[in-house]
Write a sequence for this structure.
């Protein structure tokens, strides 16, 4: 593995290797020493959370970080091409982590430089480190990835995270519930792909009845901008707010995940229940990113 | 074989069943050399297509790769290699596995539309007439493609 650009490039074996390394690094981070290695964060959009997760991952393994955040005041603003900016960053660092609003930007940069490139989000296309940390979180909380029942809840139409997660879990024979307002349903091309892979799923507009069945509830934000009219948004928004009361009949092993930041789709009264797992999920992101950085820098043992 | 309204050629390539009106775009892709003698026929009547265009190139045998590069705009073209006035070889165009720099990605948010770079589309025979952008990973049908 030279770069990490898209989940499509990853074999099931490679995913398992990364999951194992993340678990091993969580137990014993001292096994890897990335001192004298420099990670360049090329962030054409702020995405502070993702950047800080990567920085934490790198620094906790002894590495250094240099960062370009946003384009104002940089050579990009003077009209420098993406290829030129990337080539310079490659001279300053050992690995590039990049976030860009245009789809395919990370793939293009990976073709332009000799050092490893990690895609930290390219528009609506891919965000593979999020998908991998989600897998790691599910594995850690359930002890397996095989045969789980998952409800993906919220904006399933535009939500890159849930699309990617559906594909990432496909090799592990999941059963999905897709829970969303009618206007934000999972796109039909994804449903077709899942059908072709023999994955079973059911579409729902409410969550209540399925709570007792599921192992994972993956909640995403519903944005007002996605609705053609305000009235429809007001009608549905409360139906997708998870609170502690709704979880009363959940199985003991059930965990609620959310890519964060949440706005109001998970009430704070869920935080103190045994089901809340979204802050652990954020922490798991650091271990998974450590596994990715270590592997791409050729330091994995 | 039906009589063609352009002169027969001795040696070279005939491309038949080009959709009417696309002959110039086909030639722009094939980029004839200055030594090639090229005959273009436009708006010939055709049973299958109603109207079609035809190209004959005297003195040059196009390779299958060259021929395949026109597959997106002339998907049903038939290609004959002519030797001594006889059809020596017939083939159909096939969408190549990799199409570089011939089409624009229809996704406005694709990096190929934001940076000075060459587009690359990948194609598998199993995907019929669908192409995948190497960069934004979106899938388009050949008919949606915008030609450069
Ligand atoms: Zn594209």
């Amino acid at each position: 593995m030279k770069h990490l650009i898209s989940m499509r490039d990853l074999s099931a074996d490679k995913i398992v290797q990364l999951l194992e390394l993340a678990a091993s690094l969580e137990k014993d981070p001292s096994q890897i020493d990335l001192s004298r290695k420099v990670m360049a964060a090329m962030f054409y959009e702020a995405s502070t959370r993702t950047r800080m997760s990567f920085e934490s991952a790198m620094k906790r393994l002894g590495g250094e970080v240099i960062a370009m955040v946003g384009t104002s005041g940089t050579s990009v603003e003077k009209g420098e091409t993406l290829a030129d900016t990337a080539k310079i960053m490659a001279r300053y660092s050992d690995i590039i982590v990049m976030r860009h609003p245009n789809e395919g930007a990370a793939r293009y940069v990976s073709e332009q430089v000799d050092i490893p490139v990690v895609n930290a989000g390219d528009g609506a296309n891919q965000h593979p480190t999020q998908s991998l940390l989600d897998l790691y979180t599910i594995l850690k909380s359930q002890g397996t990835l095989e045969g789980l029942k998952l409800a993906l809840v919220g904006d399933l139409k535009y939500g890159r995270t849930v699309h990617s997660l559906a594909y990432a879990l496909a090799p592990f024979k999941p059963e999905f519930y897709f829970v969303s307002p009618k206007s934000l349903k999972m796109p039909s091309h994804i449903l077709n792909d899942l059908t072709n892979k023999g994955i079973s799923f059911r579409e729902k507009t409410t969550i209540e009845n399925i709570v007792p069945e599921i192992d994972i509830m993956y909640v995403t934000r519903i944005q007002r901008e996605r609705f053609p009219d305000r009235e429809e948004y007001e009608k549905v928004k409360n139906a997708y707010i998870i609170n502690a009361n709704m979880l009363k009949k959940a199985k003991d092993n059930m965990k609620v995940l959310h890519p964060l930041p949440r706005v109001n789709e998970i009430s704070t009264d869920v935080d103190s229940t045994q089901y809340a797992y979204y802050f652990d999920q954020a922490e798991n992101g650091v271990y998974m990113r450590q596994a990715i950085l270590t592997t791409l820098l050729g330091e994995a043992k | 074989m039906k009589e063609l309204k352009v002169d027969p050629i001795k040696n070279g390539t005939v491309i038949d069943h080009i959709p009417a009106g696309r002959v110039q775009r086909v030639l722009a892709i094939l980029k004839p050399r200055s030594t090639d003698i090229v005959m273009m026929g436009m708006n010939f009547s055709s049973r299958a297509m109603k109207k079609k265009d035809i190209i004959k190139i005297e003195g040059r045998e196009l390779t299958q790769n060259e021929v395949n590069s026109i597959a997106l705009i002339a998907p049903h073209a038939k290609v004959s290699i002519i030797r001594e006035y006889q059809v020596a070889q017939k083939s159909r165009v096939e969408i190549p596995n990799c199409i570089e720099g011939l089409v624009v990605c229809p996704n406005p948010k694709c990096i190929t539309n934001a940076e000075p770079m060459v587009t690359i589309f990948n194609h598998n025979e199993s995907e019929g007439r669908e192409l995948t952008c190497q960069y934004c990973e979106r899938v388009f049908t050949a008919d949606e493609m915008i030609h450069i």
About this structure: The pocket of zinc ion is lined by residues A 104; B 105, 107, 110, 112, 133, 135-136, 138 (CB under 6 Å). The CA atoms of residues 26 and 139 of chain B lie 24 Å apart.
